[in-house]
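Schema walk-through. Below, the input block comes first and the output block second. Nothing else is stored per chain. Lengths vary across the set, and this one has 265 residues.
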Amino acid sequence: MTIEFVDIVVDARRLTIEHEWLSPERRDQPLMVFLHEGLGSVSMWRDFPAKAVDALGWRGLVYSRPGYGRSTPRPSDEAWGPDFMHRQAQQVLPALLQALGIDAHRDPPWLLGHSDGGSIALLHAAAFPAQVAGVVAMAPHLFVEELSLASIARAREAYLHGALRQGLAKHHADVNSAFWGWNNAWLSPAFRPWDISDELGTIACPVLAIQGEDDEYGTLAQVRRIAARVKATTVLPLPECGHSPHRDQPERVISAVSSFVQPGR
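--- output ---
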């Protein structure tokens, strides 16, 4: 694993972004950008991105959002508002692509996002419809469900009193930055009405929406809502699968992604 760092500027603030290129020598092949979950990072993807791009014969880009991994941490006094995923989709990701010399106008990348990363991928595709070739959204959130909030509240208890903090500390230079940015934002009363459903109508690319049927953080209503808003949506429910399809059923997910992005292959 070769980790690199690049600086971007968002809201007049300089941020350092941890990232990794996968098979960059395939410069003439499409690019898949991977967007991690609400507690994720480059390292928490493990080997899934490499296996996915190898199956496709593509290039890949994995990065840690600000506040995560070894990217610039969230200041301890900074509370993320209900728009935190919008900011990632509409400000941070475009700035990162530009800093890395990716011309999304000329060669739109594909986006593969998990959980919050899936929501960010959808929001980016909605804001820049001509600059995204397609979206794979695994366990994305479009609106707030009580199931999600209950699981996020349990995560708080596990972080405070269980082994979650120790496990996450292996993947984040500032583990409190990663956990409390995400947890406090989701459990804030101001986040309860959050709903991006009506923003997705501008998406012009195809979408593969994958949802585990045993997901403790969301139900099939999330991906069905995508299909109701975006015509070119394929919904893939996965039995015996929880919140992380790429960890629970990696071969099934890679096969589905391959069929989706390269139909008829």
